[in-house]
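Q: Could you write out the predicted structure for this multi-component system? I'm mainly interested in how the pieces pack against one another.
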Amino acid sequence: MDTKKYVIRQISIFSENRPGRLAAIAHALGEEKINILAFSIAEANGFGVVRALVDHPEKAHDKLLSLGFNIAFTDVIAVHMKDQPGGLYEVAKILGDAGINIEYSYAYSGKEGAVLILRVDQVEDAIKRIKNSGATLLERSVFH
Amino acid sequence: MVCWDPRIEAMPKEELKRMQYKLLKSLVYRLYSFSPFYHDRMKEQKVHPDDIRELADVHKLPFMFKRDLRDNYPDKIFTATQDELVRYHVSSGTTGKPTVVGYTQNDLHTWTTSLARGLTSVGLGRGDVIQVSYGYGLFTGGLGMHYGAERIGATVLPTSVGNTERQIELMQDLGATAIACTPSYLLHIGEVAAKMGVDIKKDTNLRTGILGAEPWTEGMRNRIQDWLGIRAYDIYGTSELSGPMFTECSEQKGFHIWSDIALVEIIDPKTGETLEPGEKGELTITILQKEALPMIRYRIGDITSMEEDTCSCGRTHPRIQRIQGRVDDMLIIRGINVFPSQIEFALMAIPEVGEHFQIVVERKGALDDMLVRVELNKESFSDKINDIMKVRQKVEHRLRNSLNVNVDVELVEPGSLPRFEGKSKKVIDKRAM
């Protein structure tokens, strides 16, 4: 199975936890006409990590790097969920049963249904398990 | 006036100066003959012991600095052999290397005598219970006060620092009449006591505080005295001099520096010239009686002034005033000396963070709080919060180990800390005294 086409490049950005930092990141991406498709912020005491799926990850990376941001690419996967009670359970159960750990996750609900973005410890294994269970993975081309 | 050593403490000034001259002369001869370090220094300065013909000739002698102790780590300039030493104390140096001080039996005796005179001069003695809440261990505060208090026949309650609630219980149960600690720790004790429903003024026998190891002000003294119902006395010393050494007397007009133990000069830190009494400058001390680690014209780095008139208590020895600042960038955090260079040194050994840093010191409640802001390197950034937390914990752990004081670390974006040309302003001290 070609698992590569399901591996999506997330950009992860280190940010101090103070006013204006998200605006600075968003402004830079806007200037480069980069569209943000999904994003989340994880916060700890004093700092945070902004994670985003964008249409042009390379361009976003270079732009933010040139502004001095700490930025890295991270491989994630995106799974279709049923936008109804129990939808998240179906996906989470597949990974749980397979012993695959979810490092973190975030979701969005759009016109075409709900999507769960997952950062897991074993990407390839997770893709296979999800495919075999009949759930739908979103291809990288959907995002970029 | 109750004195520990009445003959010496009230000795006429001229006689004291004659005694100092004799002690200085024999010290210089001894070091010129037996200490390679001092021999070389005196040669460099082109001064021979024969050139010391009166007390004022002390200014011909070379200065000594903290860096001399660092450069000769750990014991290269000791003038006693290891079998003559009975104790070591260790304090922070300006870089990763600490400063080691050794003591012979006589050195401990001199140190303890100095404190016995001071404690007696504030009215303490047999019958008192002195709670020693300075840290015991490598730091000189705890053991120094302990021996001084035992010498005058007081009962020592060696609580050391920490576990404040227990300190307060013991203070009540054993009827402590005096406490020795940092002024900020005493304020903390007061706050914790209030929370426990204990009024130090009414519910304890405490009436004297021997407070030091960090700078404080008259304002803080008044607050402590009014709030806790005690008399608060300042105490001065550094590990290079032995430890806590000189206290104020009951008049609270500055520290009496015992002339038979130490020769004080106040110098202009820029030119090295001796200043007149009353003028503000850098405290420079020659320890006249020290066997293991003698100090000639040691420049401590503290800014103060000296008074030579006879104190209203009757003691003839000179007094120095409250310490008003530093000539270098040394910080005192919870009684512990911290040099920004130590932090730089520790950070350089941690690849996950950059070498730029900023120190923010605040007083939270009564206690000092130090935050070090440091840049997270690009290579060590991870999208997982836990990985970054581990970096922060590592930095906190390393800094704590090298500074001996708790440090909070904040990771910031690379390039976000201010860069300075020359001497950088890396310290933001928000403590209101």
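A: Regarding packing and overall arrangement: The longest strand of chain B covers residues 353-364.
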